[in-house]
Amino acid sequence: MRACLVGDVTPPIDEGMKKVTYALASALRAHGEVCVLNPLEARTTPFWATLRRFRPDVIHYVPGPSMGSFVLLALAKAWTRSVTVMSLTHPDPALPAKFACRLFKPDLVLAQSERLENQYRALGCTVRYVPNGVDTSLYRPVWPPDKIELRAKYGVPLDAFVVLHVGNTRHVRNLQDLLALQRDGAQVFIVGSTSVPGDAEVEAELRQAGCLVLRQYLSHMEEVYGLADCYVFPTVVHNAAIEHPLSVMEAMACNLPVVARRFGALPRVFEPGGGLYFYDTEAELKDAIRLIRARHTASATRAKVKDMDWRTIAAGIAALYQSLVHASGAN
Questions:
Q1: Which of 124, 69, 110 is nearest to 319 (CA)?
Q2: Cα–Cα distances in Å, from 140 out to 51, 137, 180, 232, 305?
Q3: pTM
Q4: Distance (Å, rounded) from C-alpha 164 to C-alpha 251?
Q5: Does a structural domain hold residue 138?
Q6: Do residues 159 and 281 share a domain?
């Protein structure tokens, strides 16, 4: 099986779409040859020359649907006679989906949230549900002595109750939810993306309230989960993050208690309980944090992602590729 993944994996790999493309490409290499092409280079001769030379069986656009990605996949299919796959990782809100699907429909669409699965199925697409994965060997729980060392390394108070959030600091991420936790005595620690520009006013407000905000690329992101006591994902707006946020899964793989908005695919993929809480209001967020601080329930969030390692997810996607290629040959 020869799969060409279209997605940006230029360093730093510190935002959702890059991380999904990189992790999926790495795991798929156990199932065949993989080539990764950057869609930002699609207007160059080397992009198309590499695609033709590689002779893929499948071309999979990973970052998400936009008008450009639909056109690109259609041109690539005509250029190579490959089957095409589109992931709904992070859809462009300006996409005229009905028009795009009518003219440039890919052979298969991979969805995560029920909202997008239903939308694209109604537009006539063949849709399959495939969640994101997580590296469960890299993201693991740490021992208490290691937690203390990590806090010292990153300048986080040793005796604080640390609430972590990982992601960019744009206003649409709704990080203002975290201010209430800082006022209630927690130490909020935010690790921002360097690939996605943040909002200076949001960062200033967070810092003024006492939150710690780190904006730099970290080669060992697992360490920041290791120093935390819980993870909060406050984002509400559909296009403010990828449909199945990787940071939530990374926190769960580290067995952190997680408090999250009912964002994207999260309520579909995970049932609450065992240290996972969903919230809709500030009061519900505060209540969940109080329960976590009181150790009301032992966290068992790692168990919820133990079967979602990237190797497992890639094996399922490789099987879908094989089915597509077989069906195209039969036709």
A1: 110
A2: 37, 6, 29, 18, 11
A3: 0.95
A4: 9
A5: no
A6: yes
- In this prediction, residues 286-310 reach a mean pLDDT of 93
In this structure, the answer to whether residues 317 and 286 fall within a common structural domain is no
What is the dihedral angle through the alpha carbons of 147, 252, 168, 156, rounded to the nearest 10 degrees? -10
Domain of residue 214, CATH code: 3.40.50.2000
Both tokens of 322, joined, read 């094989």
Domain co-membership, 167 together with 93? no
pLDDT single digits (tens) 223-267: 999 999 999 999 999 888 999 999 999 999 999 999 999 999 999
Token reading at 108? 């298969």
Q: What is the dihedral of CA 213, 218, 222, 227, to 10 degrees?
A: -40
Q: What tokens appear for 268 in the block?
A: 């579909």
Q: Which domain holds residue 263?
A: 144-305
Q: Is the pLDDT of residue 330 over 60?
A: no
pLDDT band at 193 (very low <50, low <70, confident <90, very high): confident
